Amino acid sequence: MSDRKYRQRGYMDDDRDRKPAPKPQGPPGPRPRGDRPEGPRTPNLMPTRQVVRCAKCGAEIAAPYAAEGRCAKCGADVHTCAQCVYFDPGARYQCMQPVPERVAPKDAKNACTLWEPRTTVERETHSVSVGSARQAFDDLFK
Q1: Where are the alpha helices (DSSP H) in 1-129?
Q2: DSSP one-letter code for 74
């Protein structure tokens, strides 16, 4: 009988401790696509812009954010806690700034001095007008 417990190949083989043979060094082939000497190619991204949107209806709000301002679409007040950049439902008094007392209700106009409008970054997408699309179609099939 053999001194090996199992007969599978590789079990207790002597060649397990050997190092693999070194690979021959030939001339370098083509570089991988991402390895460019001038650096990676920048992607073609759409431009972005900062927008202030209404907390109730999502309509875009015009730039002068006065304390008496209202949304043009739904008529909601602009100077509210729900519209503020520091509004956080999980924070103490639902504000990330140290405020002495809770302001309630959060969707009504208030006189908070820490208020800043919440801005979001959106991609600028340009829709093609119907006239120019029709003109492009006609130009294509003249």
Answers
A1: none
A2: T
Measured CA to CA, the distance from residue 2 to residue 58 in angstroms comes to 80
Partners of 60 in beta bridges = 53
Residue 13's DSSP bridge partners are none
The model's pLDDT over 71-120, given as tens digits with 9 standing for 90+, comes to 888 888 888 888 888 988 888 888 898 888 888 888 888 888 888 888 88
Whole-angstrom distance, CA of residue 80 vs CA of residue 94: 12
What 8-state DSSP symbol labels residue 63? S
Single-letter residue type at 118:
R
**pTM of the predicted structure, to 2 decimals:** 0.53
Instruction: Please state, in angstroms and rounded to a whole number, the distance separating the CA atoms of residues 47 and 44.
Output: 9
pLDDT of residue 131: 65
Are 36 and 51 contacting, i.e. CB atoms less than 8 angstroms apart? no
Please compute Rg for the chain using Cα positions: 33
Distance, in Å, from the CA atom of 127 to the CA atom of 142, rounded to the nearest integer, reads 24
Exposure letters 50-87 (e unless 16+ CB within 10 A, then b) = eebbbbbeeeebeeeeeeebebeeeebbbbbbbbbebb
E strands in the chain? 48-52, 119-123
